[in-house]
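Batch manifest, entry 17 of 40.
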Amino acid sequence: MSQLVITPIKGIPLVREGDLIPRLILDGLVSNDISLQDNDIIVIAQKIISKSEGRMVRLSDIAPSERAIQLAEYIEKDPRLVELILRESNEVLRTKPGTIIVEHRLGFVCANAGIDHSNVHELDPESNNDHYLLLPVDPDGSARIIRDEIKAETGKNVGIVIIDSHGRAWRSGITGTAIGIAGVPALVDLRGTEDLFGYSLRVTQVASVDELAAAASLMMGEANEGIPAVHVWGFPYDLRESSMKELLRTKQDDLFR
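Output type: C-alpha cells
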C-alpha cells in the first residue's frame, strides 16, 4: 500500500424519496473533477439511501403496542418511537433509562434499531419534528444496485459501501460502520500470513470494510457538514464479492450477549 486517498464528493443536494443515488454520485464526481477508475470505492451515508428509498415514517401515524408502552415507561422514550424500534428488531438485548440496544432485523447489534431523527426535518418543515428515518430494507441490495448502475454508465468496476454511525460494546463514542456493501471485502483473512519476524498469524482477520467506513466518516462528518459520500482511491485489498453476513458473529461467538 502506498497511500489511501479519500475525497469528499461535495455539492450533492438534499435527497428526497425517488431520487436516483447513482445519478447524484456520478454528477458529484464530475462537479468535483474526480475521475472514476476501476477498483475505486464510493462510500455513502445511509441517510441518503434511506431517504431515496422512502424509509421515512411519522410518529403520529404509529400506534404503540402494550409492550412498547411498558418498555417506553422504563427507558423514558416516546412509546411510538419504541414501537418503531421493536418493529425493526429481532430481539431487545439491553435496556436502561435513555437507551435500548437491539439486534436489528438485518442481524447486527445497535442502539435504537438505527432509527435516526437528525437532518430529516427539511423534508417537511411543518411536521413539528415528527419524522424519523429507518435503515434501508436491504443495504447490501441497495449497494449492488448503485454499483451495477455506475458500471453500466461508466464501464468502471467499483466498490460501494453504505455506512452508518454505531457505538461499540467496549468503547465510548460512535464511529462509521458499514451496513451495506457491494464488491468490497468485509473481512480480510490474514491467518497463515507471516509477520515481520516470521511468526504465522493464527487468528487475525481484518474488518477491512469497517476500517474504511471509519476513515470515510472522518471526511463526511456527523452533524452539519453536508457531505454524504466520498470517493476512495488506494484501498489496499482486492475488491471481491461479499456481504455484511461476513461480519456478523453468531450468538455463541458473541461474548457481550
